[in-house]
Input
Amino acid sequence: MNSGAEPQHDTSGVVKSVGRTLALMEAFQNWKRPAGAKEVSRALNMPRSSANALLASFVTLGYLWFDPKNATYFPTLKVGLLGDWLIGSVRRDRALNAILQEISTVTGETVSIAMRAGFEMQFVTIYPSTFPVALNLAEGAVAPLFESAVGMAWMSTQDFEDIEALAESYNRQPSVNPVTLSGIKNRLSDVAKKGAAVAYDKVLPGTGAIAVPYPRATQGQTIIIGAGGPEDRIRRSEKMIIDLIRRLVRQTLG
Output
């Protein structure tokens, strides 16, 4: 769902070394393969000498592995462990996972837990669909914050002043389709009316998704429960899925 080099963020006001560090990790997240110093230099828009120094530092600290035969770098497991405690706390929430399992059993659709990651929503847990034709998601995949059902569900839990600031920051990025506050308000109004965020043909053509916030935060993070599949199937089951998720949440948390 996400490809290319690294996401383009508004880095004004960001310490350069911090911005480059995170940009490097995001680049490898998108590439999912080893890369040489020249490619890193080009992707991060930095001099080759600076890229070499950055990469060497990560190798010394144990966050990158260097393959001298091919002159390439790749993250070590140490990188993945940095956020493992947060994802682990989500997966250890028995009540939350019981809800997902029931949604999966009843609907047969792809069921997920998503959390905000910058201007994207990242899927941290996936219950695959049991249908031959389904929405295929992998854990770690991302969806756009302002376009996806999980993104709108997340925004429905936030103060609009914070959403406004987030939208302004997003619109300052290069090469993005600007979002409008009026458009966001209209979609949030639909979320309030339906009791869930619903999106069709937004992330992938021919697909639909329904998302509802989980009222209990995990480590201060807002959790979003989602269910998705082929558009026609989700449209037919839209009300049933919304009612099911909301009922399970109420029954579980009281």
